[in-house]
Amino acid sequence: MVKILSTADIHSPRYLDLFMKSLDKTSALPDIIILAGDLVDKNNVYALKLVYNALLKKFPETQIISIFGNEEYRGYEDKYKSMYPSFKWLNDDYILLEVFGQRIGIIGTRGALDKPTPWQSRHMPWVRDYYRKLPILVSSLIDQLRSKGAEIIVLVSHYGVTYSDLEGEPREVWPYLASSRMEKVVINKRVDLVIHAHAHNAVMTRIKLGNTYVYNVSLPANREIVVIDYVKEEKPIGLDKWLK
Predict the structure, then answer these.
(1) 115: phi then psi, degrees, rounded to nearest 5
(2) Which listed site, 42, 112, 198, 215, has its alpha carbon 20 to 30 Å from 161?
(3) What are phi and psi of 97, to 5 degrees?
(4) Average pLDDT of the chain?
(5) Cα→Cα distances 29→5, 16, 222, 238, Å
(6) Residue 225 burial class via C-beta count within 10 angstroms: exposed 0-12, middle 13-18, buried 19 and up
(7) For every residue of 37-64, which 3-state class applies, written as one string?
(8) Residue 73: strand, helix, or coil
């Protein structure tokens, strides 16, 4: 079993108090900590300092992996990396870890949307093409990790990867919260675990897509830091089950 501690949408300082109270109550000893973006509000880089220090103080020996959300503005990635170097920042790339003898590949991305937001359409006209191509890139990263011996594939995306866990958000905004194309990658590539955020008002924070557990770890949705006890389910696929 791999124990993962995960949260997102802290929007520091907006939900900083809730984060600190939840962290103080957390008794889990995680093998990995995963932060799924929107850690600060409106690119307030300095507002991450209290979150950073609190996590390092409580879990000094634990690998902390973070991605960027839409509130960590594009073009500032290097600033976050230089100010918070103890976090392993992923940005459309991956890390391969070994935990209890298991090779775990973690892909990190802001994610894709079915429709760019109106602001993105005005200020980032290139992003529509990026969202169209990103699922192809993620699929390639999964293949790369498997070729390197990854036994467990974890996809961490700030934006959602399916509409199936967006209940609670107005239906008309679902295309601005998630990517249905990414759902096909998750299912077809048999990703083991998905962690995402961004849907603050979702009422279902854990679902299953095929054999893949999908967790929405948004702090406003869960009202606490999420603990994930992951055990890989070894299930023969297709004719394999008759040949064993």
Answers:
(1) -135, 130
(2) 42
(3) -115, 160
(4) 95
(5) 8, 21, 19, 37
(6) buried
(7) CCCECCCCHHHHHHHHHHHHHHCCCCEE
(8) coil
User: What is the rounded distance in angstroms from the CA atom of residue 161 to the CA atom of residue 166?
Assistant: 10
Strand locations in 36-191 (E): 63-67, 87-90, 93-99, 102-109, 152-157
Per residue in 105-164, pLDDT tens? 999 999 999 999 999 999 999 999 999 999 999 999 999 999 999 999 999 999 999 999
Q: How is residue 179 written in tokens? A: 């990517």
Report the half-sphere exposure of 196 (CA within 13 A, side-chain side). Answer: 34
207, 200 contact by CB (below 8 A): no
Domain 2-231 top-level CATH class: alpha beta
- pLDDT > 60? residue 13: yes
Q: Which pLDDT band holds residue 234 (cuts at 50, 70, 90)?
A: low
